Amino acid sequence: MQQLYNERIDEKMLLQELDNGLKVYIMPKRGYTKQFAIFATHFGSNDSKFIAPGDTDVTEVPDGVAHFLEHKMFEEEEGSIFEQFSKLGASANAYTNFTTTAYLFASTENFYENLKLLVKFVQNPYFTDENVEKEKGIIAQEIRMYQDDPNWKVYFNALEALYHVHPVRKDIAGTIESISQINKEILYKCYYTFYHPENMVLFAVGDIDIDKTLDIIKENVRQDKKQGEIKRIYPKEPLSVYKKEVIQDMQVSIPLFNLGFKDTDVGFGGKKLLKKNLEIQIGLEMALGRSSDLYERLYNEGLIDSTFSFDYGGEIDYGYSIIGGQSKDPFKVRDIILNAINNLQFLKEEDFERIKKKYIGKFLRTFNSVDSIAYSFINFYMKEINLLDYLDVLYSISFEDVRERFQNHLREENSVLSVVNPIKK
After folding, report:
1. What's the CA gap between 377 and 379, in Å, rounded?
2. Looking at residue 348, what is its pLDDT?
3. The pLDDT value given to residue 343
């Protein structure tokens, strides 16, 4: 068993890779009353075209399969998995995003019984023609709900404008048309390709017995042989944005906007990706945080309100920043921001030092919550980042790093504006 330790924060993780390729990480947190486990596969909505290990032909599946598969995993012949977790006093959940599907539970009792249930149900799919058809109606309702959500639409309209062909521009749940093409054979194909232990990771955190935790996992995980690499096929994405503006009318009282910036410096993970992510996030905070001159100007002119926010989403093969909220004049907000970022004078070194300290404190607080630790671990793991490297990378970032990254990323030619306007009467 390998021990990963960071002296700066005095935190450690233990790593055991099983014979079938599954990587198990355990973080002991002595004295904590809550335990948390998360079992994740590197399979998200972006993975609709691939060559499975042992195959020579390309498999292409309908959009929304990863999300559909997540839904179906909670159904077994004996009934609902949620009910079984509930009887054991645990709160269970799952999620699918662009790159990952994860199954998890939090407990304060019966941790080992809950862990056994988690490992077993994720390793035992149960798909039938009948339950797949039934699920189509449920997910179709979910898709309609999101299509009627203005915040969801303004966001995905921005992604569609940023990207020409990359699958990140597509809704995670797919479309009603695409899910209608899903059948049990497609689900099983994706399951046995992407839910192989070699493509998965299990993370457990809390005041737990390391040997007992490992024994339960080894006893209940499938003893498959390693399968080799899954070849994921993504279309070649141009550096340019697809469309500069997307405007849509919906049932809102005040216009919503998302100003997006496409990241063109992509294709790497690990510490290099973590450094880039932090440089952009710190730069955005310096430029647009609530203590910034730019925020104060926009707020005082009545152009933004408390819904104003910003974020950067950086993955190995794509990345983008989104700045958004409500505004009576989204186009004026865009013009003010674009004019301001051409002048880097508002990026001040004293702000950099303050915000860097803020990020240090925020990260350290992560280790007060087993939930936060687990979610952060999986998020970083899928980007080939070790959670324990975070502070070392953060400390290495200079003010000049942020200025240079900000200047290269937030460029007008890489920007798009998505607006949802009130329906005209």
Report:
1. 6
2. 87
3. 75
Beta-strand pair 101-107/200-206: unpaired
Cα–Cα distances in angstroms (integers) from residue 64 to residues 41, 155, 165, 234, in the given order: 16, 18, 16, 16
Pairing of strands 200-206, 23-28: parallel
Q: What SS3 state is found at 34?
A: coil
Given 11, 70, 160, 198, which residue is catalytic? 70
- Indicate whether 71 and 207 sit together in one domain: yes
> What range defines the domain where residue 252 resides?
245-422
In the prediction, which pLDDT does 279 show? 97
DSSP state of 397: -
125 near 185, Cβ under 8 Å? Answer: no
pTM for this predicted structure: 0.93
Whether residues 398 and 259 share a domain: the answer is: yes
CB 51 within 8 A of CB 80: no
User: Contact at 8 Å (CB) between 304 and 326?
Assistant: yes
What's residue 276's pLDDT?
A: 98
Low-confidence stretches of the chain (pLDDT < 70) are none
The structure tokens 């880097």 sit at 344
Torsion sign over Cα 113, 114, 115, 120: positive
Length of the chain (residues): 425
Q: What is the pLDDT of residue 342?
A: 80
Q: Identify the pLDDT of residue 41.
A: 98
- The DSSP element (H or E) to which 351 belongs, if any, is helix 349-366
Give the integer Cα–Cα distance in Å for 321 and 323. Answer: 7
> Strand 256-262 vs strand 319-326: parallel, antiparallel, or unpaired?
antiparallel
**In whole angstroms, what is the distance from residue 332 CA to residue 336 CA?**
6
Task: Output the six-digit token pair for 401.
Answer: 């790093």
Q: Residue 231 corresponds to which tokens in the numbers above?
A: 């070849």
DSSP state, 231?
Answer: E
Token reading at 290: 């609530």
- Strand-pairing partners, residue 76, are 79
Calculate ∠ Cα 190-192-198, nearest 5°. Answer: 110
Q: What is the pLDDT of residue 186?
A: 97
Any catalytic annotation for residue 70? yes
- Same domain? For 209 and 350 the reply is no
- pLDDT in the model for residue 1: 85
Tell me what pLDDT residue 37 has.
98
On the CB side of 117, CA atoms within 13 Å amount to 26
Domain shared by 100 and 206, yes or no: yes
Encoded tokens for 132: 């797949």
Residue recorded with tokens 């929304």: 64
The conformation of residue 211, written as its DSSP 8-state character, comes to H
Q: Are residues 196 and 340 in the same domain?
A: no
Supply the pLDDT for residue 130.
92
